[in-house]
């Protein structure tokens, strides 16, 4: 156990070190004038982040992933489809309502839209689409066809929103789809899919296990679009307080307690649901239950440390850097956005869970290194493009429509496993660090460029972009694999033909 923990510390260090180094280096340049106090707070938060990620990843291995797999296997083996669908819907709603990522987003738009109502609508959206995703696995429905169908509905709802004159809420709707698949939701939902698919078995079981995250990301977008269309009254955005707490000690304690309550509530929903299933269906041995108990403790402590350090140290610094870089010039802002986007995905806890599961399920044909490179490039491009949109002030639809057309188009030309992994990766890449560092950075840049009145329209949407670009980059890996395989077969065929010709000449 101790060796595993130190390995997780090493992984977390390699993940957080790049973003920390970049921010510290920028703070010593004339571009950004961070105070000594702010730099120290950021560095302390970064070290806390390393500990939090390590504990979370260890906890996910010991508890969250096995729990999801056992629930999926147990419910499927019971052969009671009604029970399977009902439990999946309820767990989808409850886990999402208490997802810390969603709370971070809701707090930043609470002045525009009732935060509680937003969370409830998003939770219902995830619950419904988790049910759809589980039905996809059970009945072995093609993921590409489902995604094409539901995204057609999404863009039909977008058209209705624009007709109602609420287009400024469009980026928030797509951001909601990205933040719901956070560090608690991802390990459980992904392993739930693996458990169900492997129990059902059949051809393509591994491939069939992916796709839950991608479908669960559609539900919140539709839910918020419906909420925005039906909303009434004047909606005015008020900028949250992104300053570093004046009394740091009391500020950290308050944030620590608030985060502990949020994370505890989130884990409690999972524990209670799992406990009921353990008594009625699963009946796992005590040894496994004790392992899961310690894993939940590690997950709880890791997430509390992670989210507290992000909120205290990363959110204010992200806003400050975006604001000051935008004041000094657009070129530096765009370059910084690309670089910070490439490294920020390394520090997302759920990304490492996804990469490990992808490598295991594909038996190493898609490696963790390939996944991480594709995700880094995709997220770097998405943050860079989001900053370009802030500078010029055009609609996010100019990115979303061609982006999803390319993504859905590629799904018909690449192996289905790549499509499933790509759409899952999109939801996973837009984790808590994106909503707590990249989004404040975009808001800071937007305030410097256009003031607070344009924030909802221009700054929001960066999470949606982070969720979209990996769909293209990872499917491009699949397209490259298909082309390479075709070239390899042609070369092999050419060699066979050449050998046959040589034999004919010899005999002649």
Molecular structure report:
The chain has 508 residues and is mainly α. It has one domain. It has 20 helices and no strands. α2 (36-77) packs parallel to α8, α3 runs antiparallel to α11 and α5 packs antiparallel against α10 (212-230).
Quick summary:
This protein has helices spanning 2-27, 36-77, 81-97, 100-108, 115-139, 143-163, 170-179, 185-200, 205-208, 212-230, 248-282, 286-328, 330-344, 349-361, 368-392, 397-410, 416-429, 432-450, 455-459, 462-507. It is an all-alpha fold and 508 residues long.
Number of helices: 20
Mean pLDDT: 85
Largest sheet: none
- Class from secondary-structure proportions: mainly alpha
Enumerate the spans where pLDDT stays under 50 for 5 or more consecutive residues: none
What is the CA–CA distance across the termini? 70 Å
Globular, elongated, flat, extended or rod-shaped: what is the shape?
globular
Please estimate the helix content: over 70%
What's the β-strand tally? 0
Return Rg in Å.
Answer: 23 Å
Order of helices and strands: HHHHHHHHHHHHHHHHHHHH
Number of domains: 1
Q: Roughly what fraction of the amino acids lie in strands? A: under 5%
């Amino acid at each position: 156990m101790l060796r595993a923990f130190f390995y997780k510390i090493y992984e977390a260090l390699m993940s957080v070190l790049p973003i920390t180094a970049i921010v510290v280096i920028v703070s010593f340049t004339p571009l950004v004038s961070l105070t000594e106090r702010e730099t120290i707070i950021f560095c302390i938060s970064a070290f806390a982040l390393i500990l939090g990620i390590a504990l979370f990843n260890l906890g996910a291995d010991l508890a969250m992933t096995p729990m999801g797999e056992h629930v999926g296997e147990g419910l499927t083996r019971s052969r009671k489809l009604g029970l399977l669908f009902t439990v999946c819907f309820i767990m989808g709603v409850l886990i999402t309502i208490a997802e810390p990522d969603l709370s971070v987003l809701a707090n930043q738009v609470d002045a525009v839209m009732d935060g509680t109502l937003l969370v409830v609508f998003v939770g219902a959206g995830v619950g419904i689409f988790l049910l759809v995703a589980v039905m996809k696995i059970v009945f072995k429905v093609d993921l590409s066809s489902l995604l094409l169908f539901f995204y057609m509905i999404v863009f039909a709802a977008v058209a209705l929103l624009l007709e109602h004159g609420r287009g400024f809420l469009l980026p928030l709707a797509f951001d909601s789809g990205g933040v719901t698949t956070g560090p608690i939701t991802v390990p459980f939902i992904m392993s739930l899919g693996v458990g169900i698919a492997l129990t059902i078995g059949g051809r393509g079981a591994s491939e069939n296990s992916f796709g839950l995250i991608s479908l669960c990301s559609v539900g919140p977008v539709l839910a918020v679009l419906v909420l925005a269309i039906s909303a009434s009254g004047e909606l005015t955005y008020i900028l949250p307080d992104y300053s570093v707490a004046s009394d740091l000690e009391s500020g950290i304690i308050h944030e620590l307690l608030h985060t502990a309550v949020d994370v505890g509530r989130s884990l409690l929903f999972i524990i209670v649901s799992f406990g009921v299933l353990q008594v009625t269906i699963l009946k796992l041995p005590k040894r496994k239950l004790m392992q899961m108990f310690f894993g939940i403790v590690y997950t709880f402590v890791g997430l509390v440390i992670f989210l507290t350090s992000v909120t205290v140290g990363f959110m204010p610094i992200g806003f400050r850097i975006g604001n000051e870089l935008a004041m000094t010039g657009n070129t530096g802002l765009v370059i910084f956005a690309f670089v910070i986007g490439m490294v920020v995905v390394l520090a997302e806890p759920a990304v490492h869970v996804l990469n490990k599961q992808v490598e295991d399920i594909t038996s190493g044909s898609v490696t963790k290194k390939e996944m991480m490179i594709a995700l880094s490039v995709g997220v770097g491009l998405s943050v860079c493009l989001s900053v370009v949109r802030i500078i010029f002030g055009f609609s996010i639809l100019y990115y979303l429509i061609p982006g999803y057309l390319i993504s859905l188009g590629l799904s018909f030309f690449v192996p289905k496993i790549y499509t499933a992994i790509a759409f899952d990766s999109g939801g996973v890449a837009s984790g808590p660090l994106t909503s707590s560092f990249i989004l404040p950075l975009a808001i800071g840049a937007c305030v410097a460029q256009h003031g607070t009145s344009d924030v909802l329209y221009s700054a929001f949407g960066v999470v949606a972009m982070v969720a979209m670009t990996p769909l293209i980059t990872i499917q491009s890996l699949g397209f490259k694999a298909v082309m390479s395989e075709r070239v390899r077969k042609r070369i092999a065929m050419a060699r066979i033909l050449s050998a046959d010709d040589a034999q004919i000449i010899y005999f002649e």
